[in-house]
Amino acid sequence: MCGVAGVLAGPRAEPAGLDELKRMIAMIGHRGPDGYGFYRDGRIGLAHARLSIVGLAGGFQPIHNEERTLWITFNGEIFNHVELRRDLEARGHRFYTRTDTEVIVHAFEEYGPAAWAKLNGQFAIGLWDAVKRELWLVRDRLGILPLFYARSGDHLAFASEAKALFGGGRIEPRFDAARLAQVFTHWSVAPQGSVFAGVQSVPPATAIRIDADLRLHEARYWEPDMAGDPALSGITLDEAADRLEEKLLDAIRLRLRADVPVGVYISGGLDSSVIAALARKLDTTQMHSFGVRFADNAFDETPQQRLVAGHVGTEHHDILCTAEDIQAALPDVIWHGESPLVRTAPAPLFLLSRLVRDSGIRVVLSGEGADEWLAGYDIFKEDKVRRFWARQPQSAARPKLLSRIHPYAATGGQKDSPLWQAFWKRGMTETDDPFYAHRIRWQNTAWTQRLLAPDVRSAANAQAFDEVVAAHLPAGWSRWSPLARTQWTEIAAFMSPYLLTSQGDRVAMANSIEVRYPFLDPEVDDLCAALPDRVKMLGLRDKLALRRVASRLLPAEIFHRPKRPYRAPMTTALFGAQAPAYVRDLLSEESLNRYGLVDAAGVAALAAKAHRTDGRMAGEREEMALVGVLTLQMLARNVLDELPGRASTLRARLDAAPIHILEEHLDSAAAA
Question: What are the Glutamine amidotransferase type-2 domain coordinates in residue numbering (predicted)?
Answer without folding.
Answer: 2-213
